[in-house]
């Protein structure tokens, strides 16, 4: 069983903000599988699908970004999911808008959602897909990540979201190395 987590913040005021790219990728995967992520449990919303004979859970933690790990660890414990089967998708300000970076482990890199997951899971050795949101030198970090994409950034992030969705499918069809080779 695989657990795919997209990070974001709940609530209409955060919809389509840069910090919610993980939620956007979850929605793209749900659309791909013709399902809705609407079961509320484990401090999040999730759906379980069957793909290529394997159970796959799509999870959107509803704890707000800084406490994402609370939801992730509850799902992992309940479904007995090994950390090797965890994939987290989140935004990264240090990459151009829409660019992907897949890694099999690493630090939180200053991302509070990742800090929370690492603290709750007890390791930083889990797979992640970072989606670039760029950064702006003159806008404070919080204002930037909670802002919406510009008209110029919109086609770039839409491609990034589709690429991240395809990277997940590649991971499930082949393996993480194949996805890294294709999308890094």
Automatic annotation (TrEMBL):
> Localized where?
Cytoplasm
Alphabetically, which GO biological process terms does the record hold? protein quality control for misfolded or incompletely synthesized proteins; rescue of stalled ribosome
Catalytic site residues?
Answer: 19 (proton acceptor)
Site for Stabilizes the basic form of H active site to accept a proton, residues = 91
Site (Discriminates between blocked and unblocked aminoacyl-tRNA) residue list: 9
Q: Which reaction does it catalyse?
A: an N-acyl-L-alpha-aminoacyl-tRNA + H2O = an N-acyl-L-amino acid + a tRNA + H(+)
CC annotations in GO: cytoplasm
Q: Where does tRNA bind?
A: 14, 64, 66, 112
Q: What is its EC number?
A: 3.1.1.29
Q: Which residues form the signal peptide?
A: none
Q: Which Gene Ontology MF annotations are present? A: peptidyl-tRNA hydrolase activity; tRNA binding
Listed A to Z, the keywords are: Cytoplasm, Hydrolase, RNA-binding, tRNA-binding
According to its UniProt entry, the function of this protein is described as: Hydrolyzes ribosome-free peptidyl-tRNAs (with 1 or more amino acids incorporated), which drop off the ribosome during protein synthesis, or as a result of ribosome stalling. Catalyzes the release of premature peptidyl moieties from peptidyl-tRNA molecules trapped in stalled 50S ribosomal subunits, and thus maintains levels of free tRNAs and 50S ribosomes.
- What NCBIfam families does the record point to? pth
Q: Which PANTHER family match?
A: PEPTIDYL-TRNA HYDROLASE (PTHR17224)
Subunit relationships: Monomer.
Family recorded in the similarity comment: Belongs to the PTH family.
Q: What is this protein called?
A: Peptidyl-tRNA hydrolase
- Source organism (scientific name): Massilimicrobiota timonensis
